[in-house]
Amino acid sequence: MAGTANSDDEFQDALGEEITEKEATNTRLSEKDVDEVVEKHNQLRLDDEAEEGAAGGDVLVKQPDSEMSIEELRELEKNLSNEELAANKEKADKLKLEANERFKNDDAVGAAKIYTEALDICPSDSTKERAVLYGNRAAAKIKLDANKAAIDDCTKAIELWPEYVRVLLRRAKLYEQDDKPDEALTDYKRVTELDPGQPEAREAQVRLPPIINERNEKLKNEMMSSLKDLGNMILKPFGLSTQNFQMQQDPNTGSYSINFNQKPS
User: Fold this and answer.
1) Whose C-alpha in 35, 37, 110, 194 is 20 to 30 A from the C-alpha of 169?
2) 163-244, which class in CATH?
3) CATH code 1.25.40 region(s) in the chain
4) pLDDT digit string (tens) for 58-89?
């Protein structure tokens, strides 16, 4: 599965299925009906936000990449029939394809907005489909240099689909750019577990450990220097300094002992 996901084009359906126009049935809602359901819900949200803003003195504006929460979506779905949910899923698939085209045409802002619209109607139990929407929106946010928001979307996708190799790899790269090599290494290791032949993940597991060790050593030295400065400030009134204390490490246990030296050299 992992190998197939990685070989697909960046914005093709990661499920490996072609989206085709389904035959109309007597029980399926029309696209217009679906739009009316979504529009009605959105208008209710805007009305609620306006009332809340008036009560609190602040005007609340829904961000273009802020989809409704999963709790809100499930609450909405309680009033929908199976036919309506199926129609919503079909509409979300179409929106995803439209967003993919926008991304390919260098309209990352438009793509991110439409992925959000799709998330607002894609059924809550369609976990892989929702994961793909989050993963694709993350890629659009990367184009907009919104890496932290992209990491959030990658995380949401992975929570829905823990084996989503493409997005695990995407988040690993984002963590590296955000100077979080530990988190990046964890994701690269997970990618290798799912797809042992993934070259970028294998290379990163050789490259990152020395970087992490060097950083940890630097942080340790900075911490020791700060502690030394603090110790000297505390000991100064007693005519002492940290030079009166020698720290020695036991090679067998790795623990440290402190010895007092009355007259340091």
Assistant:
1) 110
2) mainly alpha
3) 163-244
4) 333 344 468 999 999 999 999 999 999 999 99
